[in-house]
Amino acid sequence: MLPRKRKGHQKIQIARVEKASDLLVTFSKRRCGLFTNASELSILCGVEIAIIVFSGGIKVFSFGHPSD
């Protein structure tokens, strides 16, 4: 049998996204991922976390755990 060639996770070049629609999609996905990772970190380590994210426009997104 021939060994499979897998790409797996590849590093991407970090550069500013120029296209406006791609920028919004990337921001939304990364923001959700950031909040998910923060939530997991809070649960696993028992720490309190607060994150404030300012978008390119005037929107502000916040996350806090625990929310009490």
Task: List key phrases describing it.
68 residues, alpha+beta, two-stranded antiparallel ribbon, 1 helix
Q: What's this entry about, in short?
A:
The protein has 68 residues and is of the alpha+beta class.
What can you tell me about this protein's structure?
It is a single chain. The chain has 68 residues and is an alpha+beta fold. It has one helix and two strands, in the order H-E-E.
Gyration radius over CA: 17 Å
Biggest sheet strand order reads 1-2
Mean pLDDT across the residues is 85
H-E order: HEE
Straight-line distance between termini:
57 Å
User: Spans with pLDDT under 50 lasting ≥5 residues?
Assistant: none
Question: Helicity range of the residues?
Answer: 25-40%
Strand content: 15-25%
Strand runs, count: 2
Topology at a glance:
Elements: H1 20-45, E1 49-54, E2 60-65
Antiparallel strand pairs: 1-2
